[in-house]
Automatic annotation (TrEMBL), chains A, B:
This is LacI family transcriptional regulator. SMART domains: HTH_LACI. GO terms for molecular function: DNA-binding transcription factor activity; transcription cis-regulatory region binding. Transmembrane segments: none annotated. It comes from the Bacteria. InterPro entries: HTH_LacI, Lambda_DNA-bd_dom_sf, Peripla_BP/Lac1_sug-bd_dom, Peripla_BP_I. Residues 9-63 form the HTH lacI-type domain. Pfam families: LacI, Peripla_BP_1. Keywords: DNA-binding, Transcription, Transcription regulation. The keyword Ubl conjugation does not apply. SUPFAM superfamilies: lambda repressor-like DNA-binding domains, Periplasmic binding protein-like I.
Amino acid sequence: MTARRAGGPTMHDVGKLAQVSAMTVSRVLKNDPGVSEATRERVFAAVDRLGYRRNETARSLRLGGSGMIGLVVTNLANPFYSRLALGVQEVATEYGFRMVLSNSAEQADREPGLVDGLIDHQVEGLIVVPAGSRQQHLAAAMRHVPVVLAARPPAGLDTDCVLVEDFHGAREATACLLAEGHTRIAFLGNPPSLYTGAERLRGFWAAHDEAGVEPDNALIRQGLVDAATAEAATLELLGRPDAPAALFCTNNRISQGAIRALLKSDVTLPLAGFDDFDLSDVLGLPLTLVSYDADEIGREAARLLIDRLGHKEAEQPPSRRVTIPTRVVRHGVHADGRPLGPPRTDT
Amino acid sequence: MTARRAGGPTMHDVGKLAQVSAMTVSRVLKNDPGVSEATRERVFAAVDRLGYRRNETARSLRLGGSGMIGLVVTNLANPFYSRLALGVQEVATEYGFRMVLSNSAEQADREPGLVDGLIDHQVEGLIVVPAGSRQQHLAAAMRHVPVVLAARPPAGLDTDCVLVEDFHGAREATACLLAEGHTRIAFLGNPPSLYTGAERLRGFWAAHDEAGVEPDNALIRQGLVDAATAEAATLELLGRPDAPAALFCTNNRISQGAIRALLKSDVTLPLAGFDDFDLSDVLGLPLTLVSYDADEIGREAARLLIDRLGHKEAEQPPSRRVTIPTRVVRHGVHADGRPLGPPRTDT
DNA sequence: CTGTTAGCGCCTTCAA
DNA sequence: TTGAAGGCGCTAACAG
C-alpha cells in the first residue's frame, strides 16, 4: 500500500498524508489541546488509513522512561508464582506500567542474566523472587533501577521486600497437630538454604517448644525439591519402625508428594503444610493448610516498587518490609470418619 | 559517582573514561574484530567501573528489530496457560528472543488493547490465545507483525495456528466410558461459542454415534465457565430422577468442579474429561482424562512464529496448522474397588 | 495553531 | 585500527 520502511509507517508518513508536520501528528496523538479540530480529524483519518501505531521504543528513548517493570520468578508453572505474577500485573496496569516477565526455570545461575537482560531493555524497576541465596547480582542491578524482593528477604542488600508469615504460619499449623495429641510429627522441608525452608522449620520447632514436646530429629527431612523427592521421603518415613503419626510439609509441591505417598500406601495420617492447593478440600484427608493470598504478594511488591519510582533519587524512603498474613485452613476428617475439631478458620 | 543523566552512563561516558570514541566502545561490545587488544581491555575496564549496560531500546531503534515476541493469554492462573507460556519462552530464548506476556484476565474486550500495546512496544511477532470469537483486531495486528494462534483456530484470518486434538481426544475418552457400558453420560461443557467447546462436544457426540447410543439432550450442559458453575451444574444433574451414570467434562476447571460435587455428594461416578491435573491419580475416583503437553503448544507456536520471522515478506510460507496429539490416561478404580479395565495409556 | 531544530543512545557508512 | 557524520522515530523547546 504505502511506501514504508521495514518498521511500518512513521509520524512523518502520517503527517504527509494529513498535510501537516510530524510534530502536529505527535501533538494530536498526545491529546495536546493546541491543535485545531480540523487538523485533528485529518490526522486521525490518516492514522486510520495507514494503520499507524506510535513507536513506543522511540518514544521511550526520547522520554527517558520505558513504562516497563520486570518480574523474575523461578517457576511459572507453580501456581504460587503465576498468582504472584497476576498480582504484579494488576497493579502495574493500574499505574500505567507494563510487566515483562522472565522465568529462571529453577536455575539460580540463570537469574543474573535475566536480570541484566531486563535492565538492558530499560525496565524502570524490578521485582525478583531470588532463586538462590546469593544476591550480589541484585546489588549490581540496584545501581540501575530499584529492586523489590518477593517471598524472600534481602541478604546483604538494603531494599524493600514482601514476605509471608513463614514462621507464624508454620508454628500455627504445627500447633494444630500438637493440640490434637500428635507428638511424633515428621518434617518434610525444602533446602534450609532457602529462607522459607529455614523459617518454616523454625516455626515447626517453636510450636513443639511451646507444647513442651521434643521433636524427633530422626523424622526431619530437608532438601526436598519437588513432589517426587517428597513422595520418596514420605514412603521411607512410613516404612520405618518408628514411623511418624503426622506430617508437616513446607510447601504445596511437598504436600502433594506426601499425599501421593499416603494415598498409595493407603495410610491416613494428619498432614499439615504450607500453601493451599486445588481440590485440597475434597481429598478426604485430614489436612491443615497454611493459606495466604499469593496475588497479594505480587500486588504489594508492585505497589512498593511503583511508589519508589514516584520519588526522586534524593527523597527515597528507607527500605520497607511488608508481611502478608497467613491463615490456617482445615479440611477433611479423621480416618474413622469423626470430624476434626472445630476449625480455626474456614473457606 | 559519575556524572550521569537520568538513564545511566552511555557509550560516550564509557568512551571518555577509556579514552576512545563511543564508536569504538560499540565495536568492542559487539565483538567486532577490528579493535586492538589494548583498547578492548581499556573499554571493558571502563564498562566494569561504570556498571555500564548497553541500552537495548536505543539499539533496537537503530537496528529495527526489538528481539521481542508477544504472548497474549486469557488466564495465567490456569496451569494450561502457564505451561504454554513456559513453552513459548523456552523456544524464544533458544532463538535469542525475549517474551513479553500479557494476560487478558478472561476479558475478551481487553484483548485488542493488549495486542495493540504489544505492537506499540515493537514486538516482532505475536502468539495469541484468542479470548473471544471475534478476531478482527488480530487481522489489524497482522498488518504489522505475524500472528500465530494457539489452542483456537483462526476465524476469517489467514494465519498459522497450533491446536490440540480436541475432537479426537473427546471422542476417545467418551468411547472409554461407552465401552464400559455407561450409556447415560452427562456432558459438562464450556460455552459452545469457543472452538474447544464445540469440537469437544462434537467428539462426545461422534463416540455415541459410533457406539450406536443416542445421547440424552437432557444431560447436556454448556456455557460453564469455571469450577463453581460446573459444581452447581453437576449437583443439579445428580439430583434429577434420571441422573447420569457417568460424566464428561470439557476442561480441567470443569472436571474439578464436577469432582468436588461428586465428593461432596459422596457419589462415585466414572468421569472423563479434557486436561490432566495435579493429584488426579490419587483421588480414588475412576477418571479418564485426555492429557497432552501444554508446553508443546507454546513451543510449536513459537517455532512457527520465529520461522516466519526468518523469511522475507515476499517468501512467506502459506499458513500452517499444527496439531498436538492427545492421549487418554486412566486413573482410579470403580466404586466397588475393582480396578478399571486395562489402561490404554498410562503415566 | 503549527513548524523547525536538536538530540535521546546507538550503529551503519564512509573517511582517515 | 579508529573516528566523524548522519539518522532510526519521536518529542521538548523554541520560533513563527
